[in-house]
Design goal:
The protein has 634 residues and is mainly β. 4% of the residues lie in helices and 46% in strands.
Length: 634
């Protein structure tokens, strides 16, 4: 007998609500609070322990029992106080499935000078609680004279979900937190804009939702996102004028945003020149000829035999569907419905203006049919840190991406060559714990192997900062054609290890087992030291930067013309400095490899990249890209 979501909520660790089933033995996963233990350790020992605002009367080291904890995790605040040391404030999450959780802290002597912090939020005006105390102030606000240690901030704004984060303050410096707030009852809507001509992503496309105030521009990896979209059904439109003068347009229709607090980032845009679109319509019926209302139909863009991205629509009460905004290209079309096996049509070639018709009859899933197989990740995830769209000039960063990919030696068919795409996250300046770096975006790309089973409805992606517990659904991919997604949650930060696992769900709501987990640690932003942007330099300039923690290798590119991916030309690389030693914080032009002589009076462009692997881009789990700077040779 197949298991439904309802039954699975107890039998298989409730992945419906975001718990990874890799917890081993433990109490029944019934969602009810359990009693667990927190072990507090400090260096030096003897610090008084406050827990959730109350003085426990204990000093470190100590194990405090009777802590109420839920399966999905219970967040607790704590403070460690010791004479001669700055107070240490932090968060510790306990789980019903884990008997003991450890909270460990290194205390900082009061002889170390203080620092400061600035707390900002989007939207502004949120009430600020700092280390458990209501400051009486609202965002944005600066707080001087804070201990150079860990602190906890909570921001509250009517109509938005409360947000709590811990962050570190550095002696003599200002830490800045920029916290994106989620509107209650709202969700995120986003995706990636693709060119249907070659599968590349399109930077700088205007994307908007008609009849609303939602409008944005795709970032340097083709991604867009609208935060705090109220529940409803929306059309998303896009437009981009290329350097060759052609205008590409695209649309995805009837996108449903639900009141679920999840991130349904599957509204990709397939774009092509005006007049180069076709339409596919038809019906989705049962084998008995009954219309299947709410059946879905997915069209996967296929280029050179490789799936690039897909769009999805739903059938109406009569089982009729219509995909009206498909660029003329080749597609695999798949239909599915509740309690039904999927059916499809492969290699459908559409021509401009064509109105094709494909109808499907779906058979019911037999009770003896096995559950979907557990998905399998296609390698480890890759975290990308790069300047946000507002700081990007033309499609320069896509050109940097192209140069990195070409230099890596990966084959053109590699998913990491085709899909170094998607997403971006909110702003936050350096000095704070992630959330994410200043003027930068963090995205984490995940790839998995295609699941050919007939009843696949889509996938759930779960994220946690714990390798065993606390997995919560970060993304739902309602498309059986999908083989990758990118996570650009507002909560992603640098230097934090993120674990992911996933399951597949069938059209009858059954869930597969959960996959093995994978992880990555995003790098912080790269900070350049010189030459300054627009500087005049000699014939052998020296490029300098600040060291970046977590880096195993640096790579530097100098371009002889403004990098521009949309121009579709070979990257004009004057010098490529590969495998720069980790110990280096500067390098003279032409000091390794082959370099073109710099021409007096000419303007060049340079960018530094960092990898967490000594093998560079091809095997890196995390990549950071610096801003692009100009210099002119005198």
């Amino acid at each position: 007998m197949r298991r439904s979501l309802l039954g699975l909520a107890i039998i298989a660790c409730a992945p419906l609500i975001g718990v990874g089933c890799n917890t081993g033995t433990g109490p029944p996963n019934d969602g009810l609070p359990k009693s667990t233990i927190i072990q507090f350790i400090s260096a030096p020992a003897g610090a008084r322990v406050w827990l959730n605002g109350s003085d426990t009367g204990f000093t470190t080291p100590v194990s405090i029992s009777g802590i109420s904890s839920a399966v999905l995790g219970t967040e607790n605040t704590f403070r460690l106080r010791l004479a001669g040391y700055h107070d240490y404030n932090g968060l510790v999450t306990t789980y019903a499935d884990r008997p003991t959780t450890v909270a460990q802290a290194d205390l900082v002597a009061t002889s170390v000078p203080e620092g400061s912090a600035r707390v900002e939020s989007t939207p502004a005006g949120a009430r600020i609680l700092l280390d458990g105390a209501d400051t009486g102030r609202t965002t944005p606000a600066a707080f001087p004279d804070l201990g150079p240690t860990r602190h906890v901030v909570t921001v509250r704004l009517t109509g938005y979900n409360e947000r709590t984060e811990e962050f570190d303050v550095t002696s003599g410096e200002q830490s800045v937190l920029q916290l994106e707030l989620q509107r209650q009852g709202a969700d995120a809507l986003g995706g990636v804009a693709f060119s249907a001509e070659d599968g590349s992503t399109l930077f700088g496309a205007r994307v908007w939702i008609p009849g609303t105030s939602f409008e944005t521009t795709t970032g340097q990896f083709g991604s867009y996102v609208f935060e705090n979209v109220p529940p409803g059904t929306y059309d998303v439109l896009a437009e981009k004028t290329l350097n060759d003068g052609r205008t590409f347009v695209g649309a995805v229709r009837d996108v449903v945003v639900g009141d679920q607090g999840d991130r349904h980032l599957t509204a990709h845009l397939l774009m092509a020149p005006e007049g180069q679109f076709a339409r596919v319509s038809g019906t989705v019926l049962s084998t008995a000829g009954q219309p299947l209302q709410e059946a879905w139909v997915s069209a996967l863009l296929v280029i050179d035999g490789v799936g690039v991205a897909s769009v999805v629509t739903r059938a109406d009460a009569n089982g009729a569907y219509s995909l009206t905004d498909l660029p003329a290209a080749v597609y695999d079309i798949v239909a599915g419905g509740t309690d039904s096996n999927n059916a499809g049509q492969s290699a459908v070639a559409l021509t401009p203006g064509q109105a094709a018709s494909y109808s499907f009859r779906l058979g019911a899933i037999p009770s003896t049919q096995p559950l979907p197989s557990a998905p399998q990740f296609d390698g480890a995830p890759r975290a990308l840190t790069y300047p946000r769209a507002a700081d990007v000039n033309a499609s320069a960063y896509l050109a940097v991406r192209e140069a990195m990919a070409r230099a890596s030696g990966l084959p053109d068919t590699s998913p990491r060559m085709r899909v170094f795409d998607d997403l971006r996250a909110a702003r936050a300046k350096a000095g704070a714990r992630g959330i994410p770096p200043a003027d930068s975006n963090i995205e984490i790309e995940l790839f998995w192997l295609a699941n050919p089973e007939a009843d696949i409805g889509g996938y759930n992606i779960y994220r946690s900062t714990d390798p065993d517990l606390g997995f919560r659904r970060a993304l739902q991919v309602a498309d059986p054609n999908a083989i990758w997604v990118a996570d650009h949650s507002r909560n992603l930060g640098a230097g934090v290890r993120y674990y992911y696992d996933m399951d597949a769900y069938s059209t009858d709501g059954s869930l597969s087992d959960v996959s093995e987990s994978v992880w990555t640690v995003p790098l912080d932003r790269l900070r350049l030291a010189g030459p300054a942007d627009g500087a005049a330099v000699g014939p052998t300039p020296v490029f300098a930067w600040e060291p970046l923690g977590g880096t195993a290798l640096y790579e530097l590119f100098v371009f002889g013309a403004p990098p521009d991916f949309d121009a579709r030309h070979e990257p004009n690389v004057a010098w490529h400095a590969a495998s720069i030693p980790l110990s280096a914080t500067s390098i003279p032009y032409g000091s390794s490899g082959s370099a073109e002589p710099l021409v007096s009076g000419h303007t060049y462009y340079w960018v530094l990249t960092a990898y967490d692997s000594q093998a560079g881009f091809s095997s890196a789990g995390a990549v950071s890209i610096s801003p692009i700077r100009r210099f002119t040779v005198h």
